[in-house]
Amino acid sequence: MIYVYIIDDSAVVRSVLKQVLEMNSDIKVIGSSPDPVFALEKLGKSERWPDVIVLDIEMPRMDGISFLKKIMHTHPTPILICSSLAEESSETAWVALKEGAVGIVTKPKIGLKDFLEDSAVYLGECIRSASISKLKHQISAPSPKTNGLDFTKIATTDRIVAIGTSTGGTIALEEILTSLPANSPGIVIVQHMPEKFTEAFANRLDKICKITVREAKDGDRIQEGIALIAPGNKHMEVVGSGAQFIVRITDGPLVNRHRPSVDVLFHSVAKHVGRNAKAFLLTGMGADGAAGLLEIRQAGGRTIAQDEESSVVFGMPREAIERGAAEKILSLGDVPSEILAG
Q1: Low-confidence stretches of the chain (pLDDT beneath 70)
Q2: Which of 263, 288, 307, 334 is catalytic?
Q3: How crowded is residue 126: how many other Cβ atoms within 10 Å of its Cβ?
């Protein structure tokens, strides 16, 4: 059983969220509070500390970010952000991830009850993912080198790098992309994250990376020195266009309960890029990407899975390894040099 505590200033949200989460037989809501001050008082007297805290950001008396910092210092606990502010202010949501939150769910300002009820399975998956995540020390600053390698002396070739990740992936991607030189191979990325958050995420990475990072748009060319991140709530595929490769951005049904789906990206990479691809499946819960990674390996591409020690959640990499999809298993710190290796 996964024990959950809810902190949200809306009594309606607290009530509906409790009902929805408990539609999952393995989840039990053990309490709720209208703001972090009440929550700290109540949790301090509780006989059971929650496995996961669901936290709004904008609340009276103490905002969610301040509470998050306090809890991570005194009693580290997996925290899932559930907030409409996360949709409007992606920078605030990013701060929450940097401070230790393991994921973000954006709730609409209208139609909230229907949204929560329709999202029962998804919210259950988010809680399970949070409950098994490993809380990591966040990186403080990008480093131009990894493992002592001088990347400016490593030659790159015309190939495509594909990366898929979920829980823990935003911090992992920052660590990887800030370590790459401006002449890195073209990169395509699927990170499970809410709609409207991907553009701000890409823009933030673009400011601190030597490569260009941006949210992908339909028809964007994949080229050296550019990383394209799939838009939230859209699938991204790689297709050939003459002698070049471009991305196609589509709607389409959920795949493995996700849109964007890593498998959708990886399947297209296997089909159109084949042996000229190098694919990485990183931290995340579930199996999305495992089948696609195997297809890439069978098509002659190079395939890598992140190891358990450096993964926040080892679900996706483990599934790929068990299927024989990963040619190599690497720590997160070894990924940048592997991207640049011939």
Answers
A1: 85-90, 108-110, 136-158
A2: 288
A3: 23
